[in-house]
Amino acid sequence: MRVDVQPDGDLDTTRLEWFLNDTLGLNQWLMTTEWLFSDPPDQDEHGQTVPVLVPEELAIKLVLTDLEEPDQRVVGDHSVLGVEARRWRWAAFAAQPSDDAQDRFPWERAHD
Fold first, then answer.
1. pTM for the full model?
2. Taking the CB of residue 36, how many other CB atoms lie within 10 A of it?
3. Which site among 17, 54, 85, 101 is 20 to 30 Å from 66 CA-CA?
4. In the chain, where does DSSP find H-type helix?
5. For residue 100, what are the CA distances in angstroms to 22, 96, 107, 109?
6. Does residue 51 contact residue 88 with C-beta atoms inside 8 Å?
């Protein structure tokens, strides 16, 4: 997803986080500021982007809501499966360890 960039070149994820929370709810998405497991979209074409993972059942809502925005942020999507999903689960745990030491996405923890 497209992300704002501060004048000093640092990423500013504040507006993107507000959009995600407003559209999907708290703990319904995972974002990193680095493209860890895939190549980023072309920066010349799309600007600065960050990877955002959401539950499959909310992905359509995110895309449709984004289409109504004056500045669309979604630049692409794909299903995260297999090894890539395990890697993202590890990233989710590294960002916010769970009490039971299980690699879970934030939306899976919200139901505990």
1. 0.82
2. 12
3. 85
4. 14-24, 43-46, 56-67, 82-95, 106-109
5. 29, 12, 16, 11
6. no
